[in-house]
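Quick one: structure for this chain?
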Amino acid sequence: EIAQCLVGSEMCIRDSVYNVKWKIFRVLSSALYEKEIFSMRYSHQRELILREVLSRSDYPTAEQICTSLRAVCPRLSLGTVYRDLNTLVDIGKVRRVSIPGEADRFEGPQEDHQQLYCRSCQKVKSIHISDAKLKALIDACPDIVPEDYSLTVFGLCDECAAKAAQKTEEL
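Got it. Here's what it folds into:
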């Protein structure tokens, strides 16, 4: 009887430990699942932000996106726009274009291209440089192992360059 009791209590202890481990596993799994999957639940605001970025070709900033969408969604906050843009960048739906000293700008995923930042009108425009020329430029840099690259050219866009040339001719 004592032997059966010990076996029975050992079984109870083993089952209790198993149940506790299983509950801990379920809680941790659930937390990870919620963090990874539920953080990407459908969001009307995120959808509006994505559509706004994809519909524009002027590389808008978060503030410009927020201002534009407030007509449709008056309670949209700038913080929400930044958080959703970061999420959209992380999942590859939107690309971030960083200009030193300026607010980040955003664009939809497109074919590989580079940007021109016009110092006069502060607009960002797409420019196309052949992959071969870019690769040759990067390969010419010794002692680096590039993983990724983007090129931003600083100068004048064609419109501002034409205005500047016209002003110089008038003088």
